[in-house]
Write a structure and sequence with these properties.
This protein has helices at residues 17-25, 27-30, 107-125; strands spanning 4-12, 37-41, 44-48, 54-63, 67-72, 81-87, 94-103. By secondary structure, the chain is of the alpha+beta class.
């Protein structure tokens, strides 16, 4: 398997920091845009999709209204995916920065998937 490399994507989100943080950290909110169903047991989040796919991710860290980091349990040790909420102090614009890992040849495809996910998030937020 090719080594995975880290990449980041930034999306401007028309939302308050607190509301956006809820949508990246709360199971019922994640189920509105990221997966079709999200369940938690301890630090393990089970993400399920209507096509029958299911994946477990361990919650690695959270910072209130700032950051949520997960690791897919079946992925390489050094990989993770992270949602970071950033607010521009001058303009008050809110951005969501997604950090993920993928093999170089898969980054474009993974970026397309994230773009669709973020469109879903913006639709749910009414942004």
């Amino acid at each position: 398997m090719a080594d995975k490399q880290k990449y980041s994507l930034e999306y401007e989100i028309k939302s308050s920091v607190k509301i956006l943080y809820n949508f990246i950290s709360e199971p019922n909110c994640l189920a509105q845009w990221f997966a079709d169903d999200v369940r938690i047991k301890g630090h393990i989040y089970t993400f399920a999709w209507n096509d029958g796919e299911q994946q477990d991710a361990k919650l690695l860290s959270t910072k209130e209204n700032k950051l949520v980091r997960f690791k897919w349990v079946d992925e390489e040790a050094h990989t993770f995916f992270e949602f970071e909420v950033v607010k521009d102090e001058l303009t008050n614009d809110v951005a969501l920065i997604i950090t993920d890992f993928a093999a170089k040849e898969n980054i474009k495809e993974k970026t397309s998937i994230w773009n669709i996910q973020i469109e879903n998030l913006q639709a749910v937020l009414g942004a």
